[in-house]
C-alpha cells in the first residue's frame, strides 16, 4: 500500500548504513576508543559532581573488570551473553532491519529452555549423558521459540508495513510481562517463596574448567565463539547471507537481482531471534540454573545494541566489543559491592558510548579542529 | 497526488473496519461473557484515563513536531525518564519530605528546563553533527534508564523516591456541578487541561500559522524553504528542542500525577514514550489526533482498576500489557503512515 514510503524508509536505512560502512577499520577503532573514553570521562565528572572520588572509581573499573582471575571470569561470563545477543542484533542491523527486540527474544528463549529441560528431565537418565542431551534439547527449544518470537515482528514489517523498531520494543514488554506472569503462577517451583521456576537438575550444567566460577564455564564462552563463527560464515558465504547483506546495503539493487525483499526481512528477523534464543539458553543453563522474573534478568538485549554498533554490525567485531561491555558490567558488580557509587551510572555510561558512536562526525570535526584529521582523505 | 487520495480511502476504510471490530468485540464480550460494561465505563474511569493520557499526549505532540520538521526524535522515552526524575528531584529539593503544590509546580518547571538543556545538546548532535537519528534516540533512552535511577539512588538511597506529593484536582465552582462532564472536565488535575490546551495550540500553530508551514516545509521540501530564504537548520533545531521539552514535561506530569518517582525495571515511564510515537502516527501527524490516540492508550492503561472494581478476574500483569498489544495491533492494521519526505535527511544549505 505504500511502496513510496517503504522505499523512502529503506533509503533512510541505506544512508545510515552507508555512514557506518564508510568508515575504515582504523577509523572504527578510533571511533570506538574515543566514544568510550569520552563516555567514561563524563561518567567520572558525574562521579566527582556527586561527591565521590573519581580516581578511586576509575581504579575500581579496572580492578573490577580484569584485576584478577575471578574478575576476569566474571567479565567473560557477561562477555559470553553479550557476544551472543550482540551477534543477534548485528545480523538484523547488517541486513538493514532494526531488531530492538533481542531482549524479549532472549527472555522467551531462556524461559523455554528451563521449561523444556524440567519437562524432559524425568525421561532421561540422570548423569552426564542425560545432562548433555537435556542441554541440547533445551537449547533447540529456545532457538525455535525465540526464532518464532523474532519472526513475528519480521512478518508484521514485511507484510503489514509495521515499523519494526516499535513492534520489537512492544514485544519486549509483552515477553517480560507474560513470562513474569507464568513464573509467578503456573511455572513457579513448588514451595518457592520467590517467583522462580524449579531449579534445573544438578547434572544439567556446564563443567567448571580453567576458571572456578559457579556462573561461568569456558565451554559457554566457546559455544558463543562457535555461534559467531557460524553466523560469520552464513553472512559471508551463503546465498541467504548474501541476500541479507545486499538488502542491507542496496535495497533497489537486491530487488533488481531477484531478492524477495519480504522474505529476506522475515528470514533475517528469524535468524536474529534464533541467536537471541541461544543467548537465553546459555544464560539459563550456565548462569541462573532456573528462571526468575525476567524484569530482573539484566538488560543484555539492550546492551547488545551498543555492542553491535561499536562493532559496526560485524559479527567478528562483536567479540572485542562485548569484551569491553562485559568488562564494564563486571566492574559494575564489583563497584556495587566495594563502593557506594550507585552502579546505575555504568548503564548511563553505556548509553553515552552508544550516543557518541552514533555521531562519528563529532569526532571527525573535533579531530580536524585539533589538526589530526585529513590523513585519510 | 493519486497516492495520497488512495491513502485517504484506505485510511477511512480501515478506520470504519476498526470501529466495527471494536463494536463487535464489545457486543460479543457483553453478551457471551456477560461483562458488566456499565461497571467498567464509569466517570472515574474517564477521569483516570484522561490523567493517564496527558503525559503520552504531551510527548506525542513534541515528537510530531520534530518529525514534521524532518528529524525523527526516537528519544522521547528517554526524555520522559529525565523529566520524571528531574521533577521528583526538584520537588524534593525545594520542598523536602512534605512538598506543597507550589513546589510541585516548581518541580515541573525545573524538569522542563533541564530537559530543554538536554534537548539542546541532543539537537546539536542530530542537526550539526548529523548523528544517526535512530541510534542516537535509542541512546537517549539508555542514558535515561541509567541516570534516572542513579539520581534517585544518590538522593534517596533507593531507585524509587519516597512519596512526595501528587497534583490535586482543581474544582471549577458551578461548572463542576454539571452531571458527568462536570466531574470529568471541571474537577480534575490542571495538568489534564494543560495537555489538552497544548495539543490544541500545537494544532493551531502547525496548520494555521506561517511558522507551522515552515516546520512542515522543513520536513517535506527543505530545498524550497531554503530558497525562500528561511533557515531550515534553525527550524529543525527549534522543533527538536520543542520535542525534548514536551517529552520532559510529559515525564514531569506523569510524576506529578503519581506523586513519586519509580526507577525500578524500565522506570515509571515504562514504554509511554514509545507509545507516544505510535500515538502521533495513529493520529496521522495531527496534534489533536495524537492526543485522542493518547486517550485511547491511557484508557487501556487504566482498564486494570476497572476490571478489579467490576470483579473481573484477570491477572494485573496481563492487563498491564493491553497498551503494548494495542500498539502492535494499531501499527499492523494501520501500517506505516506517510512520513514527511525528508525525515532523516541531513540538510546542508548551499551557500
TrEMBL record, chain A:
One Pfam family of this chain: BPD_transp_2
Annotated localization: Cell membrane
Cell membrane keyword on record: yes
Membrane topology: Multi-pass membrane protein
InterPro entries in the cross-refs: ABC_transp_permease
Keywords: Cell membrane, Membrane, Transmembrane, Transmembrane helix
Transmembrane domains' residue ranges: 29-52, 72-93, 105-124, 130-152, 164-183, 216-236, 271-291, 343-363
Protein name from the UniProt record: ABC transporter permease
TrEMBL record, chain B:
Pfam families: BPD_transp_2 (PF02653)
Main location: membrane
Keyword terms: Cell membrane, Membrane, Transmembrane, Transmembrane helix
Subcellular location: Cell membrane
Spans traversing the lipid bilayer: 12-33, 39-64, 71-93, 105-127, 134-157, 191-207, 237-261, 273-297, 318-337
Mode of membrane association: Multi-pass membrane protein
InterPro entries: ABC_transp_permease
Protein name per its UniProtKB record: ABC transporter permease
Species of provenance: Halogeometricum luteum
Amino acid at each position: 500500500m505504500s511502496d513510496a514510503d517503504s522505499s523512502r524508509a529503506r533509503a533512510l536505512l541505506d544512508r545510515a548504513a552507508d555512514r557506518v560502512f564508510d568508515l575504515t577499520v582504523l577509523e572504527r577503532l578510533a571511533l570506538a576508543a574515543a566514544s568510550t573514553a569520552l563516555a567514561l570521562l563524563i561518567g567520572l565528572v558525574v562521579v566527582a559532581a556527586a561527591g565521590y572520588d573519581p580516581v578511586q572509581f576509575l581504579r575500581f573499573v579496572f580492578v573490577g573488570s580484569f584485576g584478577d582471575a575471578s574478575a576476569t571470569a566474571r567479565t567473560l561470563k557477561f562477555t559470553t551473553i553479550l557476544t551472543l545477543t550482540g551477534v543477534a542484533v548485528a545480523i538484523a542491523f547488517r541486513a538493514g532491519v532494526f531488531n530492538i527486540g533481542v531482549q524479549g527474544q532472549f527472555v522467551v528463549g531462556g524461559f523455554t529452555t528451563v521449561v523444556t529441560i524440567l519437562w524432559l528431565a524425568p525421561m532421561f537418565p540422570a548423569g552426564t549423558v542425560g545432562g548433555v542431551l537435556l542441554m541440547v534439547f533445551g537449547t533447540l527449544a529456545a532457538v525455535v521459540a525465540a526464532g518464532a518470537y523474532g519472526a513475528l515482528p519480521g512478518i508484521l514489517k514485511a507484510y503489514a508495513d509495521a515499523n519494526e523498531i516499535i513492534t520489537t520494543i512492544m514485544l519486549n514488554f509483552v515477553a517480560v510481562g507474560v513470562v513474569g506472569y507464568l513464573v509467578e503462577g503456573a511455572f513457579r517451583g513448588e514451595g518457592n517463596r520467590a517467583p522462580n521456576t524449579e531449579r534445573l537438575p544438578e547434572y544439567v550444567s556446564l563443567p567448571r574448567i580453567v576458571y572456578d566460577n559457579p556462573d561461568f564455564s569456558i565451554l559457554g564462552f566457546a559455544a558463543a565463539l562457535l555461534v559467531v563463527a557460524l553466523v560469520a560464515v552464513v553472512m559471508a558465504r551463503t546465498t541467504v547471507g548474501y541476500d541479507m547483506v545486499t538488502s542491507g546495503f542496496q535495497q533497489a539493487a537486491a530487488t533488481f537481482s531477484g531478492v524477495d525483499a519480504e522474505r529476506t526481512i522475515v528470514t533475517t528477523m528469524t535468524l536474529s531471534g534464533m541467536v537471541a534464543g541461544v543467548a537465553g539458553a546459555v544464560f539459563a543453563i550456565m548462569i541462573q540454573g532456573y528462571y526468575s522474573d525476567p524484569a530482573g534478568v539484566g538488560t543484555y538485549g539492550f546492551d547488545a545494541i551498543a555492542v553491535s554498533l561499536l562493532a559496526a554490525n560485524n559479527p567478528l567485531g562483536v567479540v572485542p566489543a562485548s569484551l569491553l561491555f562485559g568488562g564494564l558490567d563486571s566492574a559494575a558488580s564489583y563497584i556495587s559491592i566495594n563502593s557506594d557509587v550507585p552502579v546505575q551510572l555504568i548503564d548511563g555510561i553505556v548509553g553515552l558510548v552508544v550516543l557518541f558512536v552514533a555521531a562519528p562526525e563529532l569526532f571527525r570535526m573535533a579531530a580536524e579542529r585539533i589538526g589530526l584529521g585529513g590523513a585519510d582523505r | 497526488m493519486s497516492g495520497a487520495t488512495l491513502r485517504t480511502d484506505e485510511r477511512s476504510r480501515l478506520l470504519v473496519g476498526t470501529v466495527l471490530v471494536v463494536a463487535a468485540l464489545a457486543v460479543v464480550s457483553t453478551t457471551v461473557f456477560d461483562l458488566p460494561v456499565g461497571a467498567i465505563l464509569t466517570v472515574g474511569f474517564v477521569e483516570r484515563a484522561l490523567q493517564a493520557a496527558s503525559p503520552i499526549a504531551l510527548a506525542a505532540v513534541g515528537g510530531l513536531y520534530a518529525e514534521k520538521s524532518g528529524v525523527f526524535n526516537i528519544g522521547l522515552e528517554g526524555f520522559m525518564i529525565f523529566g520524571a526524575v528531574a521533577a521528583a528531584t526538584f520537588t524534593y529539593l525545594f520542598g523536602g519530605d512534605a512538598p506543597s503544590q507550589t513546589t510541585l509546580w516548581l518541580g515541573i518547571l525545573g524538569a522542563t528546563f533541564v530537559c530543554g538543556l538536554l534537548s539542546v545538546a541532543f539537537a546539536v548532535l542530530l542537526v550539526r553533527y548529523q548523528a544517526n537519528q535512530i541510534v542516537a534516540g535509542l541512546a537517549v533512552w539508555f542514558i535515561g534508564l541509567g541516570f534516572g535511577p542513579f539520581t534517585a539512588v544518590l538522593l534517596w538511597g533507593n531507585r524509587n523516591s519516597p512519596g512526595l506529593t501528587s497534583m490535586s484536582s482543581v474544582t471549577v465552582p458551578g461548572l463542576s456541578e454539571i452531571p458527568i462532564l462536570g466531574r470529568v472536565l471541571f474537577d480534575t488535575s490542571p495538568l489534564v487541561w494543560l495537555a489538552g490546551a497544548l495539543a490544541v495550540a500545537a494544532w493551531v500553530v502547525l496548520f494555521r500559522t506561517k511558522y507551522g508551514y515552515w516546520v512542515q516545509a522543513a520536513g517535506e521540501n527543505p530545498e524550497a524553504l531554503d530558497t525562500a530564504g528561511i533557515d531550515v537548520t534553525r527550524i529543525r533545531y527549534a522543533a527538536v528542542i520543542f520535542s525534548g521539552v514536551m517529552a520532559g514535561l510529559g515525564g514531569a506530569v506523569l510524576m506529578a500525577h503519581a506523586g513519586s518517582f519509580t526507577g525500578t525495571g524500565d522506570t515509571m515511564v515504562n514504554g509511554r514514550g514509545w507509545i507516544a510515537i505510535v500515538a502521533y502516527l495513529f493520529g496521522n501527524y495531527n496534534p489533536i489526533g495524537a492526543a485522542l490516540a493518547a486517550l485511547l492508550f491511557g484508557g487501556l492503561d487504566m482498564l486494570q482498576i476497572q476490571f478489579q472494581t467490576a470483579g473481573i478476574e484477570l491477572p494485573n500483569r496481563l492487563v498491564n500489557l493491553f497498551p503494548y498489544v494495542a500498539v502492535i495491533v494499531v501499527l499492523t492494521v494501520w501500517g506505516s503512515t506517510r512520513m514527511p519526505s525528508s525525515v532523516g535527511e541531513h540538510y546542508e544549505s548551499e551557500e
